Amino acid sequence: MTDALHGLRVLDLSWVVAGPLIGRTLADFGADVIRVESSVRIETARLMPPFQGGEQGVENSMLYGNANAGKRGITVDLSSESGRSVVAALASKADVVIESFSPGLMARWGLDFDTLSAGNPGLIMLSTSLMGQSGPLSTLAGFGNIGASASGFQNLVGYPDRLPFGPFGPYTDYVGPRLALVALLAALADRDRTGTGRYLDVSQVEAGVFFLSPQCAHYFAEGVVAQRHGNADSVYAPHGVYPSLSEDGTDRFVAIAVTDDAQWPRLVEAMGRFDLLSDQLLDSAAGRRSARATLDAAVSQWTSTRTAAQVENILQTAGVPAHRSASSRDFAEDEQLVHRGHLVAVPHPLHGEVTVEGPRYRLSRTPGRPRTSAPMLGQHNSVVLTEELGYSADEIANLHAAGTMS
After folding, report:
1. Considering only CA atoms, which of 58, 55, 64, 120 is closest in space to residue 89?
2. Which of 32, 331, 352, 364 ranks highest by number of CB atoms within 10 Å?
């Protein structure tokens, strides 16, 4: 079968993670994605760990490699008029343009949607930024850790008697692209019907807030401000992350959640704590919540004498939700992820082979996959200029000599 997005031409002007992950998904399903990087300022993600072989280098970043697998790559000096002309020419042939520069910069370069779509009325352009393209905070720049704070996540993660801990990493860099992708696909479907493109303005902060909809609704309905409460849950109990036997000198933990009353006696029986069944207060979630400290101590005492894998197996067999707090090794060896082919080895011109994630979606007739590794700096400069724009060898040499595409 033809790939789901076969024939879709995408110009990816974004950088780091939030924008590139959108283009990465399109590439997985057959789109021809041309990744434009600066020829004078190295893409930030190329300088971020982890690095292949543990050695820092612009061609070694696994973060960059994962977010850009399957794309072709060119380097352009967008601060130059000749560089902007190259990008404008590519945009005139594109179905989709993705960018994540500071709001207003594309307009100052003459590469804004109104300008680009004037000669390409079917163009769909997607801008992804922290706060969106307009408003009093639109010019606030930063990565997804700032987005996580502004959307409310940083304040909600941690224990009530301690400073906020925040979610690991630049959280909204990873949730924003998921919502942006849905909007982009909807715009493509509409263009198939109307022939007209459109501009999409995606705010990472608003995407983050969407995932706190219940907490926002609670505030507007009752004025209740959500608070951090560690691993405890407002409904379920026991609910937490508990210590287990260390492995190779490393502390290990296991997450356990009793999500209905039927699971409570199963947990008790698995732990051999039949004495807890005689306390009728614990038959209900409300009663168990009131005895949370006592129950957490009992669960911790039991889990600490077993490995996380043993606890996980015992409780899952008993029908109680449980899973070890996975390490990166656990992730790589997870039998479910291995079964689904989530980790994919792709050839790399420098390293021979690198590992990237597979698609997050499984389509029955047109399954996606990363076809190539991420491009090396300027890897496809000549082929893109020749095949896409018809530039002659002399014209390409002049651009390189001028530093436009070096």
Report:
1. 120
2. 32
The answer to whether position 232 is within a domain reads no
Mean pLDDT of 39-55: 94
Report the candidate in 261, 244, 277 with the shortest Cα–Cα distance to residue 319: 261
Distance CA 74, CA 69 (A): 14
Query: What percent of the chain has pLDDT above 70?
Result: 100
The answer to whether residues 313 and 381 belong to one domain is: no
Q: Report residue 120 as tokens.
A: 């390409």
Mean pLDDT (the chain) is: 96
Q: Are 226 and 156 in contact (CB under 8 A)?
A: yes
Q: Which of 389, 354, 403 is nearest to 67 (CA)?
A: 354
Task: Give the orientation angle of helix 172-194 with respect to helix 20-28, to 10 degrees.
Answer: 60
What span, in angstroms and rounded, lies between the C-alpha atoms of 303 and 98?
48
Max distance between CA atoms of the chain, in angstroms, equals: 87
Q: What pLDDT shows up at residue 210?
A: 95
Same domain, 295 and 272: yes
- Whose tokens are 């608070």? That residue is 227
pLDDT of 142 reads: 85
Dist. CA 183–CA 199, nearest whole Å:
10
CATH of residue 277: 3.30.1540.10
At position 32, the amino acid (one-letter code) is D
| Predicted TM-score (pTM) of this structure | 0.93
Q: What DSSP character marks residue 281?
A: G
Model pLDDT, residue 249? 86
Q: Looking at the predicted structure, is the pLDDT value of residue 1 above 90?
A: no
**What would the mean pLDDT of 226-241 be, rounded to a whole number?**
95
Q: Which domain holds residue 358?
A: 9-210+338-401
Q: Specify if 333 maps to a domain.
A: no
The interaxial angle of helices 144-151 and 172-194, nearest 10 deg, is 90
Whether residue 37 contacts residue 377, with contact meaning beta carbons closer than 8 Å, is answered with yes
Q: Which helix or strand (DSSP H or E) is residue 34 part of? A: strand 32-38
What six digits make up the tokens of 35? 């990744």
Instruction: Note whether 163 and 79 are same-domain residues.
Output: yes
**pLDDT above 90 for 159:** yes
Could you report the per-residue pLDDT of 275-332, keeping only the tens digit for each? 999 999 999 999 999 999 999 999 999 999 999 999 999 999 999 999 999 999 999 9
The Cβ of residue 338 has, within 10 Å, a number of other Cβ atoms equal to 11
Residues 19 and 142 in one domain: yes
